[in-house]
Amino acid sequence: MTKESEIRNQIKNLIKDYFSQGKKEEFTLGKTTIPLVTPSYGWEEVCEVLDSLLDARLTMGEKVKQFEAAFAEYIGTKAGLGIGQATLNSGQGSELLLSTGGGSGSGR
After folding, report:
1. Dist CA 38 CA 95 (whole Å)
2. Residue numbers of the chain with a pLDDT score lower than 70
3. Ramachandran quadrant class, 37 (left: phi over 0; alpha: psi -120 to 50; beta: rest)
4. CA distance 105 to 86
5. Cystine design at 72: which of 18, 19, 80, 91 (Cβ 3.0–4.6 Å)?
């Protein structure tokens, strides 16, 4: 195992430990603050993002290829293509599903 792999594993173990702390506090009416948003992700997703960040392959890496294949299988097509924000002309008779991600937070 390389030093890089060891460090990644240490970071992932720390992330898993962090999420397992269970930040649950007893609710007291009038005193307990209710958060506006609670994360809908866990340590597994954070570790997946960490891999992409450390590999510096956010948009064209292995995880995109895995997603494309899984999505294509899910919708019953031969192939999937992950893109950023774009306009495509797929030709007559082609089926095309586009979704823009992110946004500016302006409510678009």
Report:
1. 36
2. 23, 83-108
3. beta
4. 19
5. 80
Rounded distance between C-alpha atoms, residue 108 and residue 86, angstroms = 16
Cβ-count burial 63-76 (b if 16+ within 10 Å, e if not) = bbeeeeeeeeeeee
Under 8 Å between Cβ of 48 and 61? no
pLDDT at 90: 52
- pLDDT given at position 83: 66
Cα distances (Å, whole numbers) of residue 8 to 12, 35, 54, 99? 6, 31, 9, 32
Tokens linked to 37: 């948003």
pLDDT at 16: 93
Q: DSSP readout, 11-73?
A: HHHHHHHHHHT-------TTTSPPPS---S--HHHHHHHHHHHHHT-TTTSHHHHHHHHHHHH
